[in-house]
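Lay summary

Proteins are chains of building blocks that fold into shapes. Our project writes down both the chain and a compact code for its shape. Here are two examples, one after the other.
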Amino acid sequence: MKPRILPNQSPEPGNANSQQPRKNTLFWRLFANYFLLILIPVIVASVLAQVLVVSIIEKDAERFNQVMMNRFSEQTDKELQALKTSMINILSTSRLRSVLLTPMASSPDSQLLPELLHSLREQLQQLESDDLVEKAYYYFVHQDLMIDAETYTNKAYYFQSRYPLDLNRRHQLESELSGKKMMDFMQSSTSLTASISYPFNTASPEVYLLVEVKSDKLEEQIHMPERWVTGTAIMDESANVIAQHGLKPYDQLVLQQRIRTDGFSSGFTISDKTGLSFMPSGFNESWHYISMIDVGTLMKPVYMTRWICWLFLLFFLVVGALTSYYLSRRLYLPIREIKDGLKLHHVPKGEAGHEGNEFDLIKRYSQFIMTENKELFQMVNGMLPVMQEQFLTKILLGQYRDALSIEFYAKEIEFAYIHKAARTVLCISFHYDRSFYDAASESSKTFLLTALKDKIHRLAPGMVWICQTRPDLMACIVEHGHITEVKGYPEKLAEQIRNILLEYSPYYKATIGIGRTVHVVEELHYSYDHACAMLTYRGLLSPVEICGSQPSRELQQWDSFLAVQEVQRIVNQYKTREYDKLLQSVLALLEEGKTKDASAVQMKYLLADVLNTWIRAVESERNELNVPYYSSLFERMNRCMTWDELTQCFEDIHGFLFRKPASTSRSQQFSEVVKYIHEHYDQELSIEHFAGMLNMSIGHFSRTFKEEVGEKYVEYIAKYRLMKAKHLLLETNMKIDDVAEKVGYWGRNSLIRAFRRYEGITPAKYRNLHQ
């Protein structure tokens, strides 16, 4: 006879053959989920990396190289254009046409004006201060004359002693100096020379301005620091190298052959393992900027990305398989135990005898349990206190005014109350200390209010409801008897709340308003409105004050605005600079208000009018209205809750609005200027800066400086810098260039000119003579 299977029983898996397929099924289900959720996105990402990302990296490499080329080419063009502009400006302002080029005598040494020669040499010195300039000089075509930054002489002596050139190089130079030239370059094996002819618009110029360009500086301009750039160069249309950096002789030869064969192709080209990038020069149409690129180094991230994508895919495939296998083995026994444990629960109708997959069975049992306990989950939500407080707030604000609606909503949120009972509303208005309120976090503020509510609840457990109708207003509903009112209880509780609030006085001050007593819930809004009205009776004697339902302070019939005579009196006192009387009148008002026990509202209305009159009087002369600051003055006054705070507030405001400017003598001002010069002599010291700082014109400042100091402003700075330079020359081994930079000169030429002017010798001779 076969054993009978009960409805709540399942066939026992008597052998391993029934367990093994289920383990395999679990493995393949886990792996399938892993494949769908993780492997497919990984595969898609890998394919995208292969198809799109690698292509993007290659294009970005090309674009980045183009950006770098643009940057250094623009910088180089800018430097050369600046040099060209400087040369043109020098020729335009040199007066060569009017004086030197006009035939005056046969011997230039006896006829040239010394003043003009000095001016031309100074212009050449200024041109030589440029970083790209090695040497600058004038070459006169029809006169035996050469002028550089140091001297002027004839051509034979100049090319033998000042600027030695062999005969062939000199003939080559003179043969190239013909016709109109506007920043044409002449290249030799050792130098690169830029030339501009003068007059500009003539085919037979009479003077050439020649500038020797520093090769090392030009190479620095075209240098690209990226690892994948093997070298850079500037080449003309004949494939001649103007300047290069990092190119070996073999690379130059290959580059020249490539250009002579294929020309200058635009953009980025790759051949074998070398890439070339060409870019025309914006300065010279016959020039091209060229960078030679190591393609292997440039494309290394591309190859690395490709390998990483494949390894990434393989890694996820192996991890997924191992994880699925491990979880399938570890999860089978716990799943079986969960299944057996859930079967002990009451089986829903229709589920008996139905086994199926373990996961399906566990899901069905779990859904049944969650459905069975749905009401329990709905009740445990933790929101009832918040909802009840919102419910009380709506009653106090008058949104619920009939007994039926209040009873209906109270039942929904499980709010238990007695309909008829004597209740009084206490309104607590908070006046936060601004320093605490701005610095404290929301969590700190909430914690303080929560602690305050808890202490009030403990004063009368079960007899006080608390809700917050506004951020700065908290309402306490006090229940103190059925129908028959208990005399004095609300006042007694208010006094206890006052003692609690005094503990929090460092954080905020408060006012407690006591409303009238009502006997049904739907009339609580009357008590609340009455309590809010009582808050206006607050005085200025205590940080925490109670305003009872029968106010002890009657509102005086004060005029909230100053009389016209008072306003005019304040304006006249300000115009006559009787600042002390302005403050005394305010203190008198405060003393009068304190004597009459005026309310805070009345007193602040009157003081606001006083403050407004002060501000208008001040702005009538200053004309620099600072609305945010003046607004902060009114805010500070409104935050004052005691007579002492109001007094201190107006003393501070009076001290700011009517402060007397500090007077500084002229000698002291110029002593500070001299002190600043001594401390910052190595920086740029413009006379405009000091004149603006002392509110003087440049001429007035210059005259006053000489009167106070005894020397002209420019000469004083020059002599002080020379004193520092002498010290460095004698006490250190610094180079002349470094000394010039240390004492505030732009270059050694400027320092040399200053030494010659004031000492009569050069810095080098000064060092040799005194060491």
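And here is the second example, written the same way.
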Amino acid sequence: MNTGTVRHYLKREDGNVTVFSIFMGVLILVITGASVDLMRLESTRVALQSTMDRAVIAAADLDQTQDPSTVVEDYLNKASMSGALNGVSVETALNARTVSANGSTDLDTFFMRMSGWDTLTAPALSTADERIANVEISLVLDISGSMRHNERMTRMKPAAQDFVRKVMSDESSGVTTLNLVPFAGHVNPGDTLFDFFRGERPKLKKGNNGWGNGDQDAPGGSLCNNNAENADEALLSPECGNAPVGADAAATIPLVTTFFPEWPNAIETVMFYFDTDEDDVYNRAHKVTNIPVNAPRDADHFFRGLVAYLMAQDSELSSPGQFLGMSIEGGWAKDTKYFQVKGDQNMEDSDIGPSKHKGKFPGNTYDYAGVDIVHWTDSYVSPNIELVAAEGGANTSADTTTGADSDQNINMPSSCVEIYDNEFMTTAMPLSDDYVPHFMFWEIDREVMQWGWCPGEDATIQYYSADRQFLVDYIGDMPMYDGTGLPYGMKYALALLDPGNRDEVSFLITEGLVDSRFEGRPIDWNDTETEKYIVLMTDGQTTDQYRPNDPKAAINSEVELNNQGSGTYHNFSVKSNNISNLLAQCELAKELGVTVFTIAFETNASATNDMKACASSVSHFFHVQGEEISDAFDMVARQINNLRLIQ
């Protein structure tokens, strides 16, 4: 080709666009293909990272019993990513576990290989830990009578027990404490703390302790006493029950002083109450059952023999003065009444006191037929020590009462302290020394409930416990009582997290009710290593607070206030005021950094709104039905256990 031809082709421009288009097409293909490869890489990385996140969370769970490395490997194997795991690191402490995992996977490229990138690597790094710092929990449980409906109590108990098992694992021992706060109409802080609050128990009513002379009423309006001139004459009077009754040998035992009336029906069971710590409040109780229908209906014929027998069986009972009194159950309505013996002032009239014949009690059950009443009666010694000694020696079977100036406490079956409106503006323990009377307001269901607006000593606060099994068992044994005193439950729950109340904890430690390793609790509000929680569960609306006009009337132990008629009780605090007190405590808790969980269990709209307002946030509130209560407690437990993904 000559020079002219070459020069001709070099000058021509009609092929330039085609060449440019080829280069641009190749470039666009490379860039577009690279985007596809990069999208494939990101999808693979996200899948690997997500799988590894789930794996380390499961492995870090302190409830996980398998080896953490094995758990991580298993997660990746099941996701067909077994080759992607490079390593697992595990750090375990007494109350914490941290699991880290890293890995990568190579992805063959489709388009980027045209640029020299044959493979791309998708990395993943994940770390999770579960650590239990110092944790203080107040678990507040509704044991009101409405919990008997729709199997609520039956469902609540195992759910709460599982919650305790989850938040109080072996790894949390020593760092997690739980205050169990059962509530009905009020909250019972227990006999020991009641005394610490300077609680003043009511005294036995004073009255005429002498015999009648036919012209005046004797104590209790006893026909026997009114017709007899003196004790010697009464011994000869058939009206005092000295004539044999039926075939029971106990009926032949002479009566000296009558503490019990003729029971209108056959007596079925009797419960004897004893005090071993000298505060006139029972802490031992023994039940005698299977009393034959032909046994005397006047318990004065047989109670002395049974008391002497029971004291001989119980090594904790050593002094006659430990015997306080007895309650009787019998009749189609299963009515129960309590009768004081030690320091009694009203003879055969009933008294305020315990009448617990069902459920768990601090003692044993004995069969009436197994006791030789006549034999043991000779061993009986009156608990009224001073006058027994004055009448002729410690072993006399004569039973007399203490003088009219007696300061004998009523054998109260519970220990609630009144809490007044201004106290709900603080986090202090109760400040008054007023006791809450023993009464019911709504009609009792005797098959499942115990008598009392204030729960008895079988449903008291359990303080700063680290004993998981004890709490599980205690929850399982809790009976139901009357009323729904939500503000009182919340008041105690928050007070037990307040470091200003350490004196109470120190006192409980000295009394052996709290482990000494928890001296110094509650921990300071602002402690960065401590988390405080309240878990409040209820099935009902906060109620009015009723009180009997005569708090010492024995009828309050036998007839519900609502059935006594108008003029027998008053409204101590109306419902709206009680709701305000509840929410005031909830706000205080949130201001102080306490996380408040609330569980509304089959509640109405009004109660549901109260529980929602009380919770730390909407996510801390649960409204559940039926079996859902187990899920609610489980979710709360998992949040408290503080499982966190930290990278």
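What can we say about the second shape? The first helix runs from residue 3 to 11.
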